[in-house]
């Protein structure tokens, strides 16, 4: 199962296994494997952080060009759903195939597969 982590700078990284995520979790990143777990983490975050996460990859060519940046979300649940859905449409979802993909830095998303 793909394990995602998010760090203090809102970088989201996908790992093909939980074992691969251990080093960044040990460095302070927070792991999650589902939309529900992301929602549990985000419960303590300010709304501004959710906006920053979404807007960091929305509108980025080659990743989320069809996703539009926003100024605010209707509610926290909508923000989590959109972030989770947006995460799945980009290169990060290739992690199931164990690819390593370089993503433009402006989208703040990395993919780490089996190396």
Q: Give me the number of helical elements.
A: 4
Residues in β-strands, percent? 5-15%
Q: Record the strand order, biggest sheet.
A: 3-1-2-4
Structural class by SSE content? alpha+beta
Straight-line N-to-C gap: 16 Å
Compute the number of strand runs: 4
SSE arrangement, N to C: EEHEHHHE
Mean pLDDT across the residues is: 75
Tally of structural domains = 1
Provide the low-confidence segments as ranges: 91-115
Describe the secondary structure blueprint for this structure.
Layout: E1 3-6, E2 12-15, H1 18-26, E3 30-32, H2 35-42, H3 47-57, H4 76-89, E4 109-112
Parallel strand pairs: 2-4
Antiparallel strand pairs: 1-2, 1-3
Features:
single chain; 4 helices; globular; 115 residues; alpha+beta
Can you tell me about this structure?
- The chain has 115 residues and is an alpha+beta fold.
- It has one domain (3-112).
- The chain has 4 helices and 4 strands, in the order E-E-H-E-H-H-H-E.
- It has helices at 18-26, 35-42, 47-57, 76-89; strands at residues 3-6, 12-15, 30-32, 109-112.
- Strands 3-1-2-4 form a 4-stranded mixed β-sheet, with helices on both faces.
- A hairpin with a 5-residue loop joins strand 1 and strand 2.
- Helix 3 packs parallel to helix 4.
- The chain is globular, with a radius of gyration of 13 Å.
Give the gist of this structure.
This protein is of the alpha+beta class and 115 residues long.
């Amino acid at each position: 199962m793909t394990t995602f982590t998010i760090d203090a700078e809102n970088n989201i990284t996908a790992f093909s296994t939980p074992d691969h995520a251990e080093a960044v979790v040990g460095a302070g990143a927070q792991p999650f494997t589902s939309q529900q777990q992301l929602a549990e983490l985000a419960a303590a975050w300010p709304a501004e952080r959710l906006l920053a996460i979404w807007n960091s990859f929305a509108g980025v060519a080659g990743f989320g060009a069809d996703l539009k940046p926003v100024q605010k979300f209707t509610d926290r649940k909508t923000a989590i759903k959109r972030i989770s859905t947006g995460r799945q449409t980009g290169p990060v979802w290739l992690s199931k195939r164990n690819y390593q993909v370089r993503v433009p830095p402006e989208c703040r998303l990395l993919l780490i597969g089996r190396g």
